[in-house]
C-alpha cells in the first residue's frame, strides 16, 4: 500500500500536510508519497524521513482553488493533483488525498479513473461523528450540486455499502434528508428520490429524516444532493468552530476537575460534542463511485485532519471499497435482469 498525498493543496500546505503525513506514516505504518515542490518538501520532511515511510515526488505545478478545474488540469499536467490521480490510475498508489481544489480533484478523478458500471455520478461520503457513539455517513457531501432521483438512489446504495464496511453495521439504516418525515413531503427531487430509493433492492430504507434529527441516531446513512449536503456539513463545522470560540473551550477533551460532580458537567459534555463538529475533526470525504480510492480533505486541514484523512484512505483500501460497490451494483443489475 502506498498513499499519495497532495502536499501543495490546502490553506496550510505544505507544513501541516507534511506534519500530518509524518504522523500517519508512523502510527499506521503505511508508506506515504508527498507530492509537491521537491526542494521544499525535502527540507520539511527531513526530520521525519529516517523515522517514517515518507517519500517525495516532484510536482512543480499547483492548481489554485479559484482556477477553472478542467482548464487548469489541461494547463498544468505536472500539478500535484494530476500526478496523484495518475498514480492511482496506474496502480502506483492505492489512494490519493488532497486538501486542494475540490473541483480539480473531482474533475481529474472523474476523467482519469472513470465511473464504475451503473454509477452515473460519483459522490462524496463523509463520516459525521459529532456524537462519537453514533456516527453516520452523509452522502453526497458536495460533489453534485444538481441531481436527479436516480443519482440519489445510487448514493443511497454506495452509502449503505460504505457504512456496512467502514462502520461495521450489518444493515445500515438509510434515510433521505427532507423537510418533513412524511413520504409525500419535500420538493420534486426529494419526493421522487424517496420512491427511487424505496424501490432499490439491498437498501434498508427507513424513509425521510428531518435536519433536527441528524444527530439523534435515527439513521446510519443520510442521503441528499451535493448542494444540500455541503451546506449541512459546513453548518455543522461552523457551529462547532464558532460556538467553541465564544465559550473559550480548552483543547483537551477532559472535563476540568472543578466541573466534576457539578451541574456544569453536562455543559462540558456539550462543549466536547460541539468540538467534534469543528472542521479540524473531520478527516475528509471518500469519493465513491469511481474506479479508484480518492479522499477529499477540508481546505483548512491542519496536521490532525490530514492524519485522519490518511486513515480514512487506508481504511478504504483495506476494505476494498471499490470492489464492494462494484459487487453491490452488479447484484442489482442481475436482479433487475431476472425480473
Helical residue percent band: 40-55%
Report how far the terminal alpha carbons are from each other.
Answer: 41 Å
CATH top level assignment of the largest domain: Alpha Beta
The radius of gyration computed from the alpha-carbon positions, rounded to a whole number of angstroms, is 20 Å
The succession of helices and strands, N to C, reads: EHEHEHHEHEEHEHEEHHEEHH
CATH architecture name of the largest domain: 3-Layer(aba) Sandwich
Quaternary organisation of the protein chains: single chain
- Are there runs of 5+ residues with pLDDT below 50, and where? none
**Approximate strand percentage:** 5-15%
Q: Please give the number of β-strands.
A: 11
The secondary structure category is alpha/beta
- CATH fold node name of the largest domain: Isopropylmalate Dehydrogenase
Question: Count of DSSP helices?
Answer: 11
Name the shape in a single word: globular
How many individual domains?
Answer: 2
Strand line-up across the major sheet: 3-2-1-4-11-10-5-6-9-7-8
Mean pLDDT score: 88
Instruction: Kindly report the name of the CATH homologous superfamily of the largest domain.
Output: Isopropylmalate Dehydrogenase
Largest sheet: 11 strands, mixed
Amino acid at each position: 500500500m502506498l498513499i499519495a498525498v497532495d502536499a501543495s493543496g490546502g490553506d496550510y500546505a505544505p507544513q501541516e500536510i507534511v506534519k500530518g503525513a509524518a504522523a500517519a506514516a508512523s502510527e499506521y505504518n503505511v508508506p506515504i508519497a508527498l507530492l509537491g515542490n521537491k526542494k521544499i518538501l525535502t527540507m520539511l520532511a527531513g526530520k521525519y524521513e529516517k523515522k517514517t515511510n515518507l517519500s517525495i515526488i516532484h510536482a512543480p505545478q499547483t492548481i489554485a482553488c479559484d482556477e477553472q478545474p478542467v482548464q487548469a488540469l489541461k494547463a498544468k499536467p505536472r500539478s500535484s493533483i494530476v500526478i496523484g490521480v495518475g498514480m492511482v490510475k496506474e496502480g502506483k498508489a492505492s489512494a490519493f488525498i488532497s486538501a486542494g481544489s475540490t473541483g480539480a480533484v473531482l474533475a481529474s478523478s472523474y476523467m482519469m479513473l472513470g465511473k464504475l458500471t451503473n454509477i452515473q455520478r460519483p459522490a462524496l461520503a463523509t463520516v459525521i461523528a459529532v456524537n462519537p457513539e453514533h456516527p453516520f455517513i452523509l452522502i453526497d457531501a458536495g460533489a453534485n450540486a444538481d441531481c436527479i432521483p436516480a443519482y440519489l438512489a445510487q448514493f443511497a446504495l454506495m452509502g449503505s455499502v460504505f457504512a456496512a464496511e467502514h462502520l461495521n453495521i450489518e444493515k445500515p439504516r438509510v434515510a433521505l434528508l427532507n423537510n418533513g418525515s412524511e413520504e409525500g413531503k419535500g420538493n420534486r427531487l426529494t419526493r421522487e428520490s424517496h420512491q427511487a430509493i424505496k424501490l432499490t433492492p439491498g437498501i434498508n430504507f427507513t424513509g425521510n429524516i428531518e435536519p433536527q434529527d441528524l444527530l439523534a441516531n435515527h439513521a446510519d446513512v443520510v442521503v441528499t444532493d451535493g448542494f444540500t449536503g455541503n451546506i449541512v456539513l459546513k453548518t455543522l463545522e461552523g457551529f462547532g468552530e464558532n460556538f467553541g470560540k465564544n465559550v473559550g473551550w480548552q483543547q483537551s477533551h477532559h472535563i476540568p476537575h472543578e466541573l466534576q460532580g457539578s451541574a456544569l458537567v453536562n455543559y462540558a459534555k456539550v462543549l466536547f460534542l460541539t468540538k467534534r463538529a469543528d472542521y479540524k475533526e473531520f478527516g475528509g470525504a471518500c469519493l465513491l463511485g469511481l474506479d479508484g480510492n480518492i479522499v477529499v480533505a477540508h481546505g483548512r486541514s491542519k496536521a490532525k485532519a490530514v492524519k485522519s484523512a490518511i486513515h480514512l484512505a487506508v481504511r478504504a483500501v483495506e476494505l476494498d471499497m471499490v470492489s464492494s460497490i462494484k459487487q453491490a451494483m452488479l447484484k442489482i443489475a442481475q436482479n433487475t435482469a431476472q425480473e
